[in-house]
Amino acid sequence: MQTETLTAAVHNSCPELDAARVAQCTLITLDALGEHLSDDAGARVASGLPEEAAGALRSGARRQDTTGKQVKIAVFLDKVRARTELPPEQADSLTYAVAITLAHMLDEDRLKLLRDQLPWELDRLFQD
User: Fold this and answer.
1) Burial of 25 (0-12, 13-18, 19+ CB in 10 A)
2) pLDDT tens profile 75-120
3) Nearest to 117 by CA among 40, 55, 65
4) CA separation, residue 49 to residues 4, 27, 44, 58, 121 (Å)
5) Which end of the chain has less neighbouring CB within 10 Å, N or C?
6) Whole-angstrom distance, CA of residue 78 vs CA of residue 34
7) What is the Cα–Cα distance from 22 to 105, expressed in whole angstroms?
């Protein structure tokens, strides 16, 4: 699987955005999700992703400042909005699209690990 496959799936959910911008913002979102995973969990989940996407998730997981800390979904979405510099509605749509794409691309064990490791409020991102 290539990172382009992942970003193309996200782009299908956010067709109003430029494909290159979606690719960039997808990696930013993966990095932000990774910040809430332990280094070990990040590496295990990332092993089911394409190289560039896996690198973004692992990069976030290496930053231990938010690992294991609860976060409200609104605060997480604000973080993604600020980092992507997208308007709120586009950033939110992209964030949900990234999570749902991950849910479809990861095998059952990696998805369970991801959802178990993330703060409970972020589980709402994975709802279709």
Assistant:
1) buried
2) 999 999 999 999 999 999 999 999 999 999 999 999 999 999 888 8
3) 40
4) 11, 12, 10, 11, 23
5) C
6) 16
7) 17
